[in-house]
Amino acid sequence: MPSAQKIKAVENYTKILENVKAMYVVDFTGFNVAELNELRKKIREEKGLLKVGKNTLFKIALNNLKIEGLEKFLTGVSALLLAYDDPVSPLKVFYEYSKEKEKGKIKGGYIEGRIISEEDVNILAKLPPKNVLIQNLISRIGGPLYGFLFVLNGLLRNLLYVLVEIKNKKEGSNP
Predict the structure, then answer these.
(1) What Å distances lie between residue 129 and 54, 92, 133, 153, CA to CA?
(2) What CA–CA distance (Å, rounded) separates 51 from 79?
(3) How far is CA 172 from CA 133, 149, 158, 160, 161, in A?
């Protein structure tokens, strides 16, 4: 029979997992308390949460939410990295921090109903920030439009030169 404390913990985990856009299972082995607190602060700034808890209780909470496939990553020392706004920015924070400290590891993740492997999560973490990607997309879409506009302006400019020459020619031949 599960204790009241464990039941309350599962309810708490279920509640914090309800509105996440993405979640990742990470191994935080090697981080000391100060580093873990600094990492948590950075993740919170990106509207994320690093939740440390018991794997079995996480599995029950995931089962309550009908999220399947993530439990295979919940082995050994694990924590859930949750993203509430941008699904990638808390992951990037964890990736950069673990790379800087040479500690920790990303085991796998769950985004929009799909389980993603460690390799795919690492590729996601290396992507540029969302704002940079949007700027790149806009410049790629806008580039041909600016070129087309430049060509149209050139045609109008040439027509104007022709009209000015015709005007000058007529004025020069009239006297």
Answers:
(1) 32, 8, 6, 36
(2) 6
(3) 58, 34, 21, 18, 16
The torsion angles phi and psi of 26, rounded to 5 degrees, stand at -125, 155
At 83-109, the pLDDT tens digits run: 998 889 999 999 999 999 999 999 999
Overall pTM surpassing 0.90 (yes/no): no
Asked if 108 and 121 touch (Cβ cutoff 8 Å), the reply is yes
DSSP strand pairing (79-83 vs 48-52): antiparallel
Q: Using CA atoms, how far apart are residues 82 and 113, in angstroms rounded to an integer?
A: 14
Both tokens assigned to 53: 């808890």
